[in-house]
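At your convenience, could you comment on the folded chain following this short note?
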Amino acid sequence: MSAKQLVRLAIVLAGVLLLWGAVALASKRGQDRGDRSSLIRKLDTAAIDTIALMGRADSTILVRNRAGAKDATQRWRVNGNPTDPQAINDLLSGLADSEQSADLVARSPASHARLHVTPDSGRRVRVIGHGRTLLDWMVGKQTVESDGVYLRQPNAPEVYVLRSRLATALARPADDWRSHTVSEINTDSVGAVEVVREGKSYALRRRGTGWILSSASQPDSAKVAGLLSSYRELRVSGFGDRLRQDSLSQLKPRRTARLLDRQGKQLLSMVFDSSSSGFWVQAKGAAARGSPEEWYRLESWTVDQLTPADSTLRKH
């Protein structure tokens, strides 16, 4: 065989190898795309009724209120409580995103414990619409970059990493799904503010176009406006667990506050108690949201804004 023939043969063999490699690569990509198409698919979020995120430590059950709730926090309920509308919007937007994709990172079940996609270490996520399961995942830990999460289908060994806003939403802890707004008040409707602080009480009452303190002294209008603005939308920093709520219910509150409307009807009633982690508060009345028996955590400076000493309100 001449040198020219050998060169031709080598060229043909190289072409065959390149063609085989391209076919194998296309086949693998097609297989991975097939896996991903069953894993990630666009959902009609209007058809979703329930989203369950179930783990060993806690479970989050999101249920749509189809009764036509006007308040955005009531359109979905999380474990029976009002929800954070932005958290719900992020989740639904992620489920409706058809552009996201997941990358295959492991095929062996030996990787499941390390990536926290086992029943003991991960969270089972199920999306249900009209009684039918639309999506079923085992979601694991977040990636190092915190913008991705590992997941797999419960009966499949393959593990994928998903990087999208949906990944961030799925990693949200249970309390972060809840609305942190526990009351909202139109300050123009307030006719009186009654405060008890460390055994001393005072009242701030509307008189004509101004206000007067129970001591008959003239309050500073700017300080009164600041006090009322602190009640416009009251947001808490956390929620008490059952054990803490039971213990707090046995204590005598250190402070109380009550807001009445211009006709003397109660808008909001709050009791405060303190602990090493800050203040805890219960909120009741027409302007309150959530259960009247629940305790919420507030920072100390917020409590001081809500229940200031009467001396700080006086005009000097």
Remarks:
- The chain has two domains: 40-177, 181-312.
